[in-house]
DNA sequence: GCGCGATGTATCGCCGCGATACATCGGACG
DNA sequence: CGTCCGATGTATCGCGGCGATACATCGCGC
């Protein structure tokens, strides 16, 4: 969800819309776009709920020329106290929503602000969700393989390999997380 | 787009909603879901436009019990002549829309119904779009690398590798396509 | 001095998603 | 022999994101 991303970015420093979008691209990279068509409505919503405030960065609007078509100044967005609470709440979330395709990447991007335990639980949740999906597809593929043309087959197999790759990636990450939190009670 | 997928599937045989969804899952695998929340509205829209017709599979509705809460019979969807035309039109499309993330997979899934030349153009279009994106992310990454925390960095790099993988996959596919259409005028 | 690309705010309609509701049917299990 | 459950089946609703588009300003090169 965009909401988390916005809260996470604004937690570092106040920003205006355009910058926010640049940061979004820089932070999420390949993985997700978030156009203005989502950004501005989201900002509006968040302001209305009270997570953020917006204020003029440009005070120089004054009585200049235009009663109509007023000059639009930069609008700077800033976290409120409630916004910070909300961010903490979202960062602590390790339920199904945090390992959905669309949400996981955003959560991951803000892992440095996330509790180590929660990190592991999110990574594991994501992994088992992917494994489930993989097994589902594998089963269905085994059943219908014969009936499928080569293109459909190749698509499926490419998809399967991608999922596999991500599972392996997650496994590495989980191991790293574990070895970093060396308050090991269970490990012999 | 769901429209193409529906047309492609109905071209093989008439189906009702539930089957259609099963086929969708079997055909697209990991790559895309398409819930009923999209399916039924889309079918409605397509019927209204005239690409498909819907008719009762179950004639056994009759005057049984319920004037209210009428028993719902299966609804079988079938391509019209216009629908077939529309399918051909969409299959021939090799513009930017066919190499978008969401659309490409659907196009690919129906490649066996697609003209070989169009296939290559779609694959190449997809590839160059991915290469563009990759270079964009790489550039931005090189610029901001120092400022990013390790998680963001890992996310970016994982994404980059995924893109790379897909590019390699596409390259293989393109080569296969080329070598199969051996009406070589240019190749010495 | 003029145009063009980057910066900047904003809206609109489309489409897909997840949740939910509701109904029927066949088989498993007590 | 009843009943409960999971698969089959149709359908809607609200939400959130996307791409296109509009419009305005600023700084730079030519």
SSE topology:
Two copies of one chain form a homodimer.
Chain A: H1 2-12, E1 15-16, H2 17-28, H3 36-49, E2 52-56, E3 75-79, H4 81-92, H5 101-109, H6 116-144, H7 150-180
Antiparallel strand pairs in A: 1-3, 2-3
Helix pairs in contact in A: 1-4, 6-7
Chain A binds a DNA duplex (30 and 30 nucleotides) through residues 1-2, 16-19, 33-38, 40-42, 69, 71-75, 102.
Notes on the structure:
The structure is a homodimer of 188-residue chains. Chain A is built from 7 helices and 3 strands, in the order αβααββαααα. Chain A folds into 2 domains: 2-57 and 74-107, Winged helix-like DNA-binding domain superfamily/Winged helix DNA-binding domain (Arc Repressor Mutant, subunit A, Orthogonal Bundle), CATH 1.10.10.10; 115-180. Chain A is mostly helical and 188 residues long. Chain A has helices at 2-12, 17-28, 36-49, 81-92, 101-109, 116-144, 150-180; strands at 15-16, 52-56, 75-79. Chain A is globular, with a radius of gyration of 22 Å. Mean pLDDT of chain A is 87; it is low at 59-70. The first copy, chain A, has a 3-stranded antiparallel sheet. The interface between A and B is large, with 36 and 36 residues. Chain A binds a DNA duplex (30 and 30 nucleotides) through residues 1-2, 16-19, 33-38, 40-42, 69, 71-75, 102.
């Amino acid at each position: 969800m965009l909401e988390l991303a916005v809260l996470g970015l604004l937690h570092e420093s106040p920003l205006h819309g355009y910058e926010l979008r640049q940061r979004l691209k820089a932070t999420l990279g390949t993985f997700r776009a978030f156009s203005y068509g989502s950004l501005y409505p989201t900002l509006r919503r968040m302001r209305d709920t009270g997570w953020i405030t917006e204020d003029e960065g440009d005070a120089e609007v004054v009585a200049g020329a235009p009663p109509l078509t007023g000059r639009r100044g930069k609008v700077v967005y800033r976290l409120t106290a409630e916004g910070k609470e909300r961010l903490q709440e979202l960062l602590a979330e390790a339920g199904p929503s945090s390992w959905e395709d669309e949400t996981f990447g955003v959560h991951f991007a803000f892992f440095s602000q996330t509790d180590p335990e929660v990190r592991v639980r999110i990574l594991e949740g994501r992994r088992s969700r992917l494994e489930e999906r993989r097994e589902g597809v594998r089963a269905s593929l085994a059943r219908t393989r014969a009936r499928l043309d080569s293109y459909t087959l190749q698509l499926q197999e490419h998809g399967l390999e991608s999922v596999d790759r991500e599972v392996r990636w997650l496994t590495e990450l989980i191991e790293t997380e574990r070895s970093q939190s060396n308050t090991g009670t269970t490990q012999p």
